[in-house]
Amino acid sequence: MNKLVLLRHGQSQWNMENRFTGWKDIPLTEKGIKEANNAGLLLKKNNIKIDKVFSSVLERANKTVEIAINASEIENLYENGLLIYERDQRLNERDYGDLVGLNKTETAEKFGKEQVHIWRRSYDTPPPNGESLKDVVDRVSPYFTKNIMPLIMEQKNILIGAHGNSLRAIMIKVGLYKSEEISSIELPTGSPLCLNYENGQLKNHYYLD
Fold it and tell me: What tens digit of pLDDT does each residue of 151-191 get?
């Protein structure tokens, strides 16, 4: 049985400030660094060996996987002391368009709670000049099919360090949830979600503890 581990980045500065982040490069907080380190310790505790790591190109995801893999003491992913992993913007967070940088509470006061809720949680309604979750699914899915699914079929253990919405898109892609269910799914920061596969078929999933 091989594993696909989905890891949302640790808490970022704008997570803490309750802002829409999107593609903006925002660093991890001290709490986020600790969450990333703990994720690696959970990989070590559960004796999960990772064969390849994927990440978005955003700093908060990159730093999370680097800290986590270092804490996990998985050595096969390093070359000349550097962690080797594949970064691609197709794994980036959802682009929130005109909402990027805005405080979520203030945005709800400005545009109305109902409208902001639609922008945040509907499947196919994007915020102004931004992406809907369906748009994220449409960019993540071909990348996953071409670059990640073949490794799962080869029974490799894969870690993806990414973001709430790009990971939700993967959950839809692998059949874990349907599009009408995904809006209620919350992914905690820095908590590895393990999907077990057998002969390319998803068998179960759980958070590491």
Answer: 999 999 999 999 999 999 999 999 999 999 998 899 999 99
Compute the mean pLDDT over every residue in the chain, rounded to the nearest whole number.
96
Residue 156 burial (CB < 10 Å; 0-12/13-18/19+)? middle
Check if 117 is active-site: no
Query: Which member of 35, 93, 131, 163 is catalytic?
Result: 93
Q: Is 106 a catalytic residue?
A: no
For the record, the structure tokens of 44 come out as: 């070590």
Q: 59 pLDDT band (50/70/90 cuts)?
A: very high
Given the residues 9, 35, 66, 163, select the one marked as catalytic: 9
